[in-house]
User: What shape does this take?
Amino acid sequence: MSSENESSSNATRPTVQSNVQPTGKATNVKLVLLGESGVGKSSLVHRFVNRDYEANREPTIGAAFLTQRCHLEDRVIKFEIWDTAGQERFHSLAPMYYRNAQAAIIVYDVTKASTLEKAKSWVKELQRQANSSIVIALAGNKLDLVEAEGDDDDSDENERQVAEEDARAYADEAGLVFMETSAKTSKNVDVMFTEIAKKIPHEHLISANRNDGRGIRGAHGNVDLMQPASENRSSSQCAC
Assistant: This one.
């Protein structure tokens, strides 16, 4: 993990070829999480931001806002993350969050095939209505459940319903970043955010610097935020 005040990570930073020159100032990138309720969107983002996992999280109401910095070789990206509620009654609010977003993570549960179908509908909606250059990632979450199959009596309930090769083939065809993840064990969580950061078009980074993130938080007065990010939380660093 790297920070302005300390450097304590043994991980090698990703190498990125870019014409954007490295600076000390972070570039704001708006990212939205979408997916059916219960697939683990909030757990993923809290693993990324707070480096922890909380079982049996309460469902998000409306949306939650968190931030995290990702250090690449040539630039620093500050993800401004909108974690949206998955309940159907909040679907109409989604355009408020993915409007002008540079990136999106659409999450499904590898043990529930129906959640992948919902994820595909989100992909279609973003491709139809969001920014044409938005970077979309498809995350098959709860990988820890299927990796633990056969270890306990509940393995039948956790049987994989979405084959990795099928989801990957769909993601490749749709032009998505694809990763199977586990918020519980942290597997592939940082990798996914790093891959997204590397794929943000340079013109979006330039535009984000000009805007300096203004207008992104305009929805605070319109929704109930269960987990608003504090200034201290916002300054935490990822292990990218």
Summary: The chain has eight helices and six strands. Strands lie at 27-35, 63-71, 76-84, 103-109, 135-141, 177-180. Residues 113-129 form the longest helix (17 residues).
